[in-house]
Specification:
By secondary structure, this protein is an alpha+beta fold. 37% of the residues lie in helices and 26% in strands. It has helices spanning 23-37, 85-89, 91-94, 105-122, 156-163, 168-190; strands spanning 2-5, 41-44, 50-58, 62-72, 95-98, 126-135, 138-145.
């Protein structure tokens, strides 16, 4: 199992120690997370498989920018991989970002379809990054980040876009264009009275 705070972002509260193998570890970790974050704690099956993230920009439907696989490096490659806060803070040494992800065409199609379905089901707009674990051809949804980091030097969406040939300025431009077009479309259907 893996446990994590329900309402955090940027891997806050997700540590290597959140991988639970027994009841005693579960109780201890749940208690620590609740006391520190004062919010519900999720308990999920730990899916062993490829860690993937999908970048989407636009609306009706969004464009899938690409799929990036996050591969552990060094000592982390020999144990169950958790894309934890510790890993993200030392990403240049601890992970390899493979984009486009070297997965089969069938797996790529399944992940793209799952990302678009999640986008629609959750009512995402303009931009989102959607994370999965891929096991035996099945993409398991982990989370959606509707406000992904846009730092020019880091952040999974920015790294993914860069590896797909989309520089930071173009990425930000695409996001702004999507938001403006959505607002203009809304204004034209609402009419001048605002109703």
């Amino acid at each position: 199992w893996i446990v994590k705070p329900a309402f955090e972002g940027s891997s806050k509260g997700i540590l290597r120690t959140n991988l639970i193998r027994d009841r005693e570890g579960m109780i201890e970790t749940l208690t620590e997370l609740y006391e520190h974050y004062r919010q519900p704690v999720l308990i999920e099956e730990f899916i062993v498989g490829d860690e993937l993230t999908v970048g989407l920009v636009g609306n009706r439907p969004p464009d899938v920018l690409g799929i990036m696989r996050i591969l552990p490096q060094g000592a982390a490659a020999d144990e169950p991989f958790i894309y934890s806060l510790e890993v993200k803070r030392d990403w240049e040494r601890r992970v390899l970002y493979e984009c486009p992800a070297q997965i089969s065409a069938a797996d790529e199609a399944a992940v793209r379809a799952a990302a678009l379905a999640a986008w629609q089901a959750l009512g995402c707009r303009d931009v989102s990054r959607i994370d999965f674990r891929l096991r035996d051809g099945v993409p398991y949804f982990l989370e959606t980040n509707p406000l992904p980091g846009l730092s020019p030097k880091s952040g999974d969406l920015v790294l993914l876009a860069g590896r797909m040939g989309i520089d930071h300025g173009e990425l930000v431009g695409r996001i702004l264009t999507a938001a403006i077009e959505r607002q203009e479309s809304r204004a034209s259907t609402v009419g001048p009275s605002g109703r």
